[in-house]
Amino acid sequence: MNSQYAILADGIGKRYERVEAIRNLNLQVKRGEMFGITGSGGSGKSTLLELLTGIRKADRGDIRLLGMDVKTHLNQIKQRIGVQLQNSALYERITVKEALQLFQTYYYKKRDLPDLIEMLSLEPYLNQYINRLSASLQQRVSLAVTVVNDPDLIALDEPYAGLEPHHRKEMWTILSNLRDEGKTIIIATSAKEEAQRHCDRVALLVEGAISECNSKKPVLTVPAIMTVKDEKYMSLTAFNQKGESA
Amino acid sequence: MRSLLMHTKMELRMLLRDIIGLFFVFIMPALSFYFFSQMFQSQDSDQVHYFNRYIPGMIGIVLFTSGFFIIGLEAVTDREKGVYKRLKSTPIKPFIIIQAIVTKGFVAVAVGALEIMIIARIALSVPLKMHVFQFLIALLIASAAFFAIGFIIASIARKFQSAMAIGFVMLYPMLFLSGAMIPIESLPNSFHPVTLLIPLTYAVHLLQNGWEGQLFTVSSIRDVIVMLCILTMGIFLSRKFFRLDME
Q: Which carries the bigger pLDDT value, residue B190 or residue A164?
């Protein structure tokens, strides 16, 4: 049953000193789904994404990615995911081509580079230094590096930050194409409307807990994510489990 | 293995494109070497003796600038910009990143040292009378200690500006009070105790002993102990405080 889910998080929590960044959160994302996490600044979007991709360790709870436990199979998981975090960057004094080649050496599975370059229209910029590219091109290069291993799961944190509307649209199109290839995409973004327009489901994160989850398509029979503190959740989950197995 | 090779290759390429690093590791020591030799060589009647002390001294400066600019400052800058955070999400192991940085440091030291020797031989027509093996061992020990200093700085400083401030506070005493550029004997007596507080003093003395074939003598013991202490402290502090991702 688990194999149909790319992400399964059960009761995860994370605390930074006095701040409870993520509170007892449950999440299920199906394979091939484009899932958005929205919320205001400080709501825990980035932390959640970092927990889900194993970059940070959760204080409690279990996370399974692509059917594997992040605690025990992190190396295997990293081979099969592509992650673009907020406030992360590529080396500045290397060219686009060098960045793609460098990141490809980290993985066993590699996406065909000419195909990737064509998909993201990077051909004219291959020999340019990354720090000399415009913000939108840097984002495109960053996305190219993220999918250099042809990942099954792509996790992106604010991939549209600082981009002009037409560049944002272009990025959403690229992501939709990747989703159409069967990849699971999870995006943390503060642009709620855009996320609702493009994602299959969108969850709203408030103070480290999911307060609502909207589906564009009926991906799951009932909302699969809520906080455990709500007792009704327990009965809903039980219903959902039955519904799924049926 | 392929990741390590590729990462090291990339680090070396970035070194060639790093203006600050190139200036402080290759240009500044070379220019200082040439001009200070013009100023001070006449003070020593024995020219060979003078350059036997002065060449390893200037290579000591290359060690310091490599440890600071190539290792410490670079690590702080890349971390601040989020490069390591990006790498953290990939399967690459942190030790590969660190190994590539250290290899880059050794290459910088080797090239910087060769550059000083070439200037001495060609521009200043100085015969290079060195004990290659002993000098290489001394260079290896001192490099390891100064790379450890680079990692200590990267453990302490979170931002480029703070790392630069630390570097410049360290730079001038290292340049002028360690015996690297100006012979310690030429300094006023009141400065002599201060020279003992500067790590580069010991590195320079060790390199001079290696150059002159005196490495395996009692005179090197104190220098080796100081270098090993710095290395041990560097490893201990880096393991405890150095983070590729500071967040």
A: B190
Put simply, the answer to whether B86 touches A79 (Cβ < 8 Å) is no
Question: Is the pLDDT reported for residue A236 higher than 80?
Answer: no
Question: What does the block give as tokens for B168?
Answer: 């410049």
Q: How confident is the model at residue A246 (pLDDT cuts 50, 70, 90)?
A: very low
Comparing CB atoms, the residue among A78, A101, A129 nearest residue B90 is A78
Residue A166 CA to residue A136 CA, distance in Å, equals 10
- Partner-chain contact B83 A89, CB within 8 Å: yes
Query: Is the Cβ–Cβ distance between A79 and A68 less than 8 Å?
Result: no
Question: What Rg do the C-alpha atoms of chain A give, in angstroms?
Answer: 18
B1 to chain A: closest CA residue: A105
Handedness of CA B43, B47, B52, B56 (dihedral sign): positive
Q: What are phi and psi of A163, to 5 degrees?
A: -95, 150
pLDDT digits (tens, 9 = 90+) for B211-241: 999 999 999 999 999 999 999 999 999 888 8
Using a CB-CB cut-off of 8 Å, the residues of chain B touching A91 are: 10, 14, 78, 83
Positive or negative, the Cα torsion across A117, A122, A124, A129? negative
What are the angstrom distances between the C-alpha of A16 and each of A19, A31, A189, B134, B155?
5, 31, 21, 51, 21
Domain range summary for chain A, segments of one domain joined by +: 5-236
State in words which class domain A5-236 has.
alpha beta
Residue type, A163: L
Tell me what the mean pLDDT of segment B145-163 comes to: 92
Q: Are B163 and B24 in contact (CB under 8 A)?
A: no
